Amino acid sequence: MTAPPRYTRTAIALHWLLALAIAAAFSLGVYMHELPASPYRSQLYDWHKWAGACILALSMLRLLWRLTHRPPADVAMPRWQARAARAVHWLMYALFLGVPLSGWAHSSAAGQPVLVFGVLALPDFVPVDKALADAAKGVHEWLGSALAILVIGHVAAALKHRFVDGDGLLARMAWRDTSGRAG
Asked: How far apart are alpha carbons 8 and 62 in whole angstroms?
């Protein structure tokens, strides 16, 4: 069996950078959420906002790359699986943008500026409004949870392709080419 074609190095790098950033931001968000008010918690919120701004930028770059570079051909799989995979990927792209934008909206509406790395002030894009801040916070938490569920499903499907189907799908996004092919 020949190995399926791989994604480009740029696509692979963007995939794994975004995966690490999302995992870190989600973990930090879950951890800091229940902490009592303190300077430590405030610092964690700042880091979470920085991660969100980086995720937003990486997501836009990744989406631009995806729209201008065709992915490799799909491996053979049932039609419903291919459709489900495409739907999940596009939903994840939407959430890659929606989660940080809703967090930014929450910060703006709560009157808490987003200073990326403590120096780059992002503009407020909604007015200060407590009701809007509460709504945006709820949306941010809901979208973040939805993204986590999709990511878990994405990882489970990739592992299924690796260990059950053995079809080489997972190797297409591996950091190193382990197929033994040149190039």
From this structure: 12
